[in-house]
């Protein structure tokens, strides 16, 4: 995730980040400029503007496409913000679970404290990578109750780690180290882990409908490709930068929406899930193991 100062206008205007849509669109913008030049050259130099074009149709269509892009970007941002709220809940619930276990468990039960702290700390790492390409063994800390090889035999590793957390808590209950009432309290915090995972997977696996995304791209393409015919009479060769800039604005909005609608990836504007996972691990260890 890109960190920046939103009040530094001058720096932001002239700064070009690697994720900036301008860099991504440069080849296509050049192609649009060349295409526009060819159309205008033919109309002015060969056809000598024998017909009068109008921008009325493009003005009307521009209003329609702006509404579509507003809806598109708002929908994508809602997905990004919902993902951030879900991961914020993961931070809070992991801390709450660790705080309650710290209070309920005897201080001398160091083994259970360590095992639970490792498992809770591993959970966000397993979750963030399961939303990407696959869980990384190097990011998971060793757990005495089960080897990494055994954990990676299952398809859904976050569920496996959640089950191990519950098994550790249940073992403490069987040993008489926590009461039945305390077990019920812990169950509420534990259940939130799977709820958060389900919410993340819903965002990840339910993209914007294909037909809607395809329609917007086709609309932008047709709109930009027909602009030279409508603008040549009024602007002549000045239509070239106008068409290129219009394409840049419309295509940039679509690219931004595509990037943030999946907030769990590795793009520059995606959520900082790596940092959040690290923060959870540090906080949980501080809560459960600082009493040694």
Describe the overall structure.
The longest helix has 49 residues, at 56-104. The chain has helices spanning 9-13, 21-46, 56-104, 110-130, 148-151, 157-174, 180-205, 210-235, 239-260, 273-289. Helix content is 73%, strand content 0%. The radius of gyration is 27 Å and the shape is elongated. With 292 residues, it is mostly helical. Helix 3 (56-104) packs antiparallel against helix 7 and helix 4 runs antiparallel to helix 10.
Major beta sheet, specifics?
A: none
Q: First CA to last CA: what distance?
A: 36 Å
**Helical content band:** over 70%
**pLDDT averaged residue by residue:** 87
Topology as H/E string? HHHHHHHHHH
Count of individual helical segments: 10
Overall 3D shape? elongated
Number of strands: 0
Tell me the radius of gyration. Answer: 27 Å
The unreliable regions are none
Q: What portion of residues belong to β-strands?
A: under 5%
Quaternary structure of the protein? single chain
Structural class: mainly alpha
Descriptive keywords:
mainly alpha; 292 residues
Blueprint (SSEs and pairs):
Layout: H1 9-13, H2 21-46, H3 56-104, H4 110-130, H5 148-151, H6 157-174, H7 180-205, H8 210-235, H9 239-260, H10 273-289
Quick synopsis:
With 292 residues, the protein is an all-alpha fold.
């Amino acid at each position: 995730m890109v960190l920046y100062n939103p009040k530094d206008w001058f720096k932001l205007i002239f700064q070009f980040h690697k994720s900036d849509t301008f860099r991504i669109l440069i080849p296509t913008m050049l192609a649009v400029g060349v295409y526009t030049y060819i159309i205008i050259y033919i109309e002015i130099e060969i056809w000598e503007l024998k017909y009068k074009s109008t921008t009325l149709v493009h003005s009307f269509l521009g209003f329609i496409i702006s509404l579509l892009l507003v809806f598109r970007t708002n929908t994508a941002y809602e997905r990004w913000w919902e993902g951030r709220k879900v991961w914020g809940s993961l931070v809070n619930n992991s801390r709450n679970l660790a705080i309650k276990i710290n209070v309920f468990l005897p201080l001398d039960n160091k083994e259970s404290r360590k095992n639970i702290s490792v498992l809770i700390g591993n959970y966000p790492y397993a979750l963030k990578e399961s939303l990407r390409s696959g869980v990384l063994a190097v990011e998971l800390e060793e757990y005495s109750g089960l080897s990494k090889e055994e954990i990676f035999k299952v398809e859904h590793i976050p569920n496996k780690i959640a089950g191990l957390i519950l098994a550790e808590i249940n073992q403490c209950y069987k040993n008489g180290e926590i009461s039945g009432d305390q077990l019920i309290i812990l169950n509420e915090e534990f259940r939130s882990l799977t709820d958060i995972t389900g919410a993340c997977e819903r965002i990840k696996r339910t993209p914007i409908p294909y037909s809607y995304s395809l329609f917007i791209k086709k609309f932008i393409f047709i709109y930009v490709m027909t602009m030279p015919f409508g603008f040549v009479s009024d602007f002549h060769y000045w239509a070239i930068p106008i068409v290129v800039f219009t394409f840049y604005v419309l295509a940039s909005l679509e690219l931004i929406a595509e990037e943030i609608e999946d907030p769990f990836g590795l793009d520059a504007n995606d959520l900082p899930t790596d940092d959040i996972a690290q923060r959870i691990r540090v906080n949980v260890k501080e809560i459960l193991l600082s009493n040694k």
